[in-house]
């Protein structure tokens, strides 16, 4: 049941990315290009999404279990540190380079665009690299 | 500042946003999980026991969305102007950056702002600003 719910959520999320125009990198770049001919549409995506999700999270915060009886896994991190900000800047540069963030890239990959496949493969590679580097760093810290 | 009225789609974008928000709401209320795409995918790249099936199901839904869209007879536009080299570099930076910051446009942007998290607001401002500066450098300085 929870697996079906996760699939449905992914499907609705993907449809939202398509309907909103987020899955079109040229449109995303049009939003990021505030100094050129600016397309403010994506601010409306964020507005619509936050409006609805705000209500859901207000409800979720009061619950100790989800509606299917499973555990709630809500974030606990609160610190605004160098790791958060530097990571976000690196992500933002990548976003601005091609107009893809993770969700839209996966949708465009699902639509069969081979350029999106290149982006997704590199993104997965970046994730593997980061975790490998982290493991190395932690091992060195706690090692003999 | 000039507004690109020709490509401005406030209604479609807001409607798509509502769907995204509804999907995030579904995932947190039915699965107790945050709909952060980089986090969900990251948990598949570095898998942990008992943490795989719901992630796979969500990603499968995401990948299936364009097929459903096509079946409905609708066209999906994805104008990818960047070349292969730039796409590879962009993907690498997005993978490293979102892992380091523990979130992207969905996890920090949509879910974090909806949870009124100052941490996510800081992340969102940082990646938006970096994205805008990158586009500025590429389009107006180069």
Structure description:
The complex is a heterodimer of chains A (144) and B (142). By secondary structure, chain A is mainly alpha-helical. Chain A has one domain. Chain A has helices spanning 2-20, 25-32, 41-61, 82-98, 102-110, 114-142; one strand at 37-38. In chain A, helix 5 (102-110) packs across helix 6 (114-142). Chain A is globular and about 50 Å long. The two termini of chain B are 20 Å apart. Chain B is mainly α. Chain B has one domain. At the A-B interface, helix 1, helix 2, strand 1, helix 3 and helix 4 of A face strand 1, helix 1, helix 2, helix 3 and helix 4 of B.
In percent, how helical is the residue content of chain A? Answer: over 70%
Largest sheet: number of strands, sense, barrel closure of chain B = none
Coarse shape of chain B:
globular
The number of distinct helices of chain B, counting runs of at least 4 residues, comes to 6
Overall outline of chain A: globular
Question: How does the helix and strand content of chain A classify structurally?
Answer: mainly alpha
Low-pLDDT stretches of chain A are none
Number of strands of chain B: 1
In short:
The complex is a heterodimer of chains A (144) and B (142). Helix content of chain A is 72%, strand content 1%.
Distinctive features:
heterodimer, A: 144 residues, mainly alpha, 6 helices, 72% helix, B: 142 residues, globular
């Amino acid at each position: 049941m929870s697996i079906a719910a996760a699939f449905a959520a992914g499907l609705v999320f993907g449809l939202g990315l398509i309907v909103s125009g987020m899955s079109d990198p040229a449109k995303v770049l049009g939003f990021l290009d505030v100094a050129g001919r600016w397309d403010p549409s994506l601010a409306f995506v964020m507005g619509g999404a936050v409006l609805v999700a705000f209500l859901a999270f207000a409800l979720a915060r009061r619950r100790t279990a989800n509606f299917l009886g499973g555990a709630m896994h809500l974030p606990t991190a609160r610190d605004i540190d160098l790791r958060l900000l530097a990571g976000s800047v690196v992500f933002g540069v990548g976003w601005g380079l091609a107009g893809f963030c993770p969700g839209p890239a996966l949708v465009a990959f699902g639509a069969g665009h081979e350029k999106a496949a290149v982006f997704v493969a590199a993104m997965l590679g970046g994730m593997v690299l980061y975790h490998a580097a982290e493991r190395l760093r932690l091992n060195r810290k706690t090692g003999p | 500042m000039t507004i690109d009225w020709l490509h401005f789609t406030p209604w479609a974008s807001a409607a798509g946003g509502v769907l995204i928000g509804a999907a995030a709401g579904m995932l947190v209320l039915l699965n107790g999980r945050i709909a952060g795409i980089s986090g969900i995918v990251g948990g598949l790249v570095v898998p942990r026991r008992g943490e795989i099936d719901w992630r796979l199901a969500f990603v499968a839904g995401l990948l299936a969305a364009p097929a459903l869209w096509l079946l409905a007879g609708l066209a999906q536009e994805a104008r990818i102007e960047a070349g292969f080299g730039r796409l590879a570099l962009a993907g690498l930076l997005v993978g490293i950056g979102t892992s380091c910051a523990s979130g992207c446009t969905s996890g920090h942007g949509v879910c974090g702002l909806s949870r009124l998290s100052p941490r996510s607001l800081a992340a969102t401002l940082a990646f938006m600003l970096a994205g805008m500066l990158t586009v500025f450098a590429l389009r107006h300085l180069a």
